[in-house]
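Researcher: Please predict.
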Amino acid sequence: MDADLIALSESIGAAALARPVRRRLLLATAESCTGGWVSQVITHTAGSSAWFDRGFVTYSNEAKVQMLGVRPETLERFGAVSPETAAEMAAGALKNSSAMFSLAITGIAGPTGGSPGKPVGTVCFAWCRVGETAAAETRVFAGDREAIRRQAVVYALRGLLVRLDAA
């Protein structure tokens, strides 16, 4: 694991723990194209069990529906790679965990699978806090499969850190 990812892991842990014990924030992840990489980064830091509850790797649409409660209608209407699906993934991670914050990632890392409307590198993110509506957004990253996935991990974790610092 490189120094940037280690620093993100440590910063997220510090932000989650920077409150009284009874208000500490547990986190959950819902990942598709990153295949658990975000969870790996978070749990790299010793003691992460104090702030990380669980991670869902929902690569297939069926897993998104079964494990996170993503509505089949959402997948049919918007596709697996959409802000709508990412938002439902983030909400489902909260509903199916003890976490207070979640993040979700779904995208097209390539090298195939892109389309004119959703080229390779398209990644949708969502972050959600218990009791609130998920905030979702889409980015398009460049590079090969590994570069796209790494950029998605970093972007998701930085977005989470911003939200934790504001909590």
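Model: The radius of gyration is 15 Å.
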